[in-house]
Each structure stands twice: as structure tokens, then as C-alpha cells.
Design brief:
Keywords: Membrane, Transmembrane, Transmembrane helix. The model has no long low-confidence stretch (mean pLDDT 73). The protein has one domain. It is elongated. Helix 1 packs antiparallel against helix 2. Helix content is 95%, strand content 0%. By secondary structure, it is mostly helical.
Length: 78
């Protein structure tokens, strides 16, 4: 029974990284869509507030991507 549990645990550990990449791809797609919508609204309305909002949302998205990338590099090196 212990060997079966160990095998299941190994399979789970090997496949756990796929879930993170799938969610990240979904997050990135949604983030890019939101950025595009805000950018188009700011261009159409020529609103300074919308341009600032676009910069903030883009910055948060890039920061999240950078942190996720560093986390995966550290995780793979262990």
C-alpha cells in the first residue's frame, strides 16, 4: 500500500507543474484582453485617466509574469 501511495504522490508531483502553466496562460490571455480594451477606450476618448489605468494594469501584469517566471526557475532548480 505504501508503494502505491508513493507512486501516486510521484505522479502528482510530476504533473503539478502543468496546472500552473494552464492557469497562467488563462491569466495572461485575460490580462492582455483587459489591457487591449482599456487601451482602445483611452485612444478613442483621449482620456488621461484611462491611459494611467492602462499603465497600472500593464505594470501589474508584467510584475506578476516576472514573479511567476522567477518562481518557476527556482522551483525547477531545486
Amino acid at each position: 500500500m505504501d508503494s502505491i501511495d508513493k507512486e501516486i504522490k510521484e505522479i502528482y508531483i510530476q504533473n503539478s507543474h502543468f496546472r500552473n502553466k494552464k492557469y497562467f496562460a488563462l491569466y495572461l490571455g485575460i490580462s492582455i484582453s483587459i489591457d487591449l480594451i482599456i487601451f482602445l477606450i483611452s485612444v478613442i476618448t483621449a482620456s488621461f485617466f484611462m491611459k494611467m489605468l492602462f499603465d497600472v494594469v500593464s505594470g501589474i501584469s508584467m510584475t506578476f509574469f516576472f514573479l511567476w517566471f522567477i518562481h518557476n526557475i527556482r522551483k525547477e532548480s531545486e
